[in-house]
Each structure stands twice: as structure tokens, then as C-alpha cells.
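Re: [help] complex structure
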Amino acid sequence: MNIFRLAGDMTHLLSIIVLLLKIYATKSCSGISLKTQELYALVFLARYLDLFTDFISVYNTIMKVVFIASSLAIVWCMRLHPLVKRSYDKELDTFRHYFLIGGTFVLALVLNEKFTLQEILWAFSIYLEAVAILPQLVLLQRSGNVDNLTGQYVFFLGAYRAFYILNWIYRYLTEPRFTRWIACVSGIVQTGIYADFFYYYFISWKNNSKLKLPA
Amino acid sequence: GNSSSPKDEL
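Output below.
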């Protein structure tokens, strides 16, 4: 474990806490894409299959349980919670995310470290995570103004993978045989997708103005 | 075959 990866995991955890806080405090999920939340639940379920078979560390196990539980809780909340589900922007959240699932699964069948079910699902979860934010970014552009907590949620979600890129550089430099091309390349693509959001987020922060994404 | 990378990251 290195400081970059710990910072990345904590930033990731923070993004989930901010989202849970927004939904719990405002009893509303307006501005949040249910499709992105469903994709994240799928990412964690596909990636953490080894939760019960390979024990890495207490920290690793606890974080996996937290990520799976929180992502499922958010999806449940947005689909079934009587008060919250009313505020879901169903007509704005129209990204065809099934194409993302299909495309990334086919890619995982072709590009994986080993043609085994666990490795294919792991690669699938890495590729899917890289594009999972797209429905959310599209929804933010459609809904015009972005409330603070939602903006912070997306910002921390983008920042966590940027920390992971520093972690991969650090591990590449310090560990003789460290290569993890699938995660590295996919992580760079993932962080790149946030680039325009980071730009507008920085502008709004500098001008102390409301975050607005151009439609 | 080639051993896949250890999945020690989240």
C-alpha cells in the first residue's frame, strides 16, 4: 500500500459518502444518474468476486464490502425509496448504458490477462468503470445547473482514479515486475473522460460561480 | 500459462 493508493481509496470513499449525504440530507436524487449507479454496482460485483476466496487484507475486505453495499444501497434508494425515487430525473437519464455493458464485456473477452471467468469479469469491471460516469456527465449537461454536492461527488470520483495513476507510476518505479496494463490504460481513459468536467469545475471554483456544463 | 497480476488493488 502506498500513499497514492490510500489517497485514491479515501477519495473514492469520500465520493460515496458525499452522494449518500446528498440523498439522505435532501431526500432527493435529482441530478444523479441511476444508470451510472447501476453500472458502479455491476463494476463492484464483477470485480470483487474474490471477496470470499482470496483474502488480501482486512482493509481490502472491508473496503470491498463497503463499496458493494453502498452502491447497492444507492441503487435501491433511487429505485424503491418512496420519497427519493420521486425526484429521479427519469426523462433526463436516457443514456443507453446497455451498450456500455455489452461493449466492455466484449472487450474483456478479447483483452484480458487470462481467459478465465474471474479474469474476464475483472477486465470487464475495469473497462466498465472507465465509462460508467458517462450517463452521469450527460445528465449533468442536460440538467444545466449542478448542485454543489453532486458536483463534489463527480469531482471526487474523477480525482480517485487520478491518484491511482500516481499509484501505478509509483509501483512501476519501485516494484521490479509491476505491470498492470489493463488497469493503467483504462484508468488513464477514465480520468481523461473527466477532463472537461474538471475544467468547468475549476472555472466555477475560480470565479466562485455556479457550476454549469455547456449543453 | 502466464500468471495473471495479483488483484491486491480495489
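Residues 3-207 of chain A form one domain.
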